[in-house]
Amino acid sequence: VHSLKISENIMLEIEENLLLYKLPKARSIDGDSIHEDQKEAMKNEEINIRVRKAVDLCYSMKEQLIRGDLKDFGSSLDTAWKLKSQFSTKISNSEIDSIYKYAIKNGALGGKLLGAGGGGFFLFYVNPLDKHFFKKAMKERDLKAKDFLFVENGMQSWTIRDKD
Questions:
Q1: Is pLDDT of 31 > 80?
Q2: Is 142 left (phi over 0), alpha (psi -120 to 50) or beta?
Q3: pLDDT for 135 beyond 60
Q4: What does the alpha-carbon distance between residue 132 and residue 56 come to, in Å, rounded to a whole number?
Q5: pLDDT tier at 128, thresholds 50, 70, 90
Q6: What are phi and psi of 111, to 5 degrees?
Q7: φ and ψ at 83, to 5 degrees?
Q8: Which of 30, 42, 47, 135 could form a disulfide with 117 if both were Cys (CB 3.0 to 4.6 A apart)?
């Protein structure tokens, strides 16, 4: 893991443009099964080529973040999703595909599926001028944005204290 030297303004902008949505129900495939399927698929040269393209894309996305080319970063998320979803038939399903297509149709430039197996989230990149329309469209589909913030020390969580 290498930390990226991203300016505070870029971090604030990307944090503002990323929207997190919990998937409506648990996925029926466990993460280990997905990883095993991907491992087996890597024996296929065509899949290997896609994986190499995805790795190259990650380096490009890193540079986009550092330079602040966030619109390009959002579009690269779309390319990454299209590549990743071809690594294994277990990565996505018709419901996930439907949510992703709906999000793109309603203003997302790209997105990433987070988590594996028993549940998960979708993280979408949306231009700030499209956020209101996007959130409204997603709410009409019974999907609500979940708040999150970037932190420097890894994942942090807390419990709300009683009013006593």
A1: no
A2: left
A3: yes
A4: 33
A5: very high
A6: -160, 170
A7: -70, -50
A8: 30
Q: What is the pLDDT of residue 30?
A: 53
Give the residue from 52, 125, 122 showing the smallest Cα distance to 87.
52
Using alpha carbons, select from 142, 75, 129 the residue that is nearest to residue 102. 142
pLDDT of residue 9: 94
pLDDT band, very low/low/confident/very high, at 18 (cuts 50, 70, 90):
very high
| Rounded alpha-carbon distances, angstroms, from residue 105 to 42, 62, 157, 158 | 31, 26, 33, 35
The confidence score (pLDDT) of residue 42 equals: 63
Q: What is the pTM of this model?
A: 0.82
CA dihedral 24, 137, 151, 14 (to 10 degrees): 140
CA distances from 58 to 37, 63, 112 (A): 22, 9, 13
The radius of gyration of the chain from alpha carbons, rounded to an integer in Å, stands at 17
Q: Which residue has the tokens 């065509």?
A: 46
Residues 6+ apart with CB under 8 A from 110: 74, 75, 76, 77, 78, 79, 80, 81, 104, 124, 125
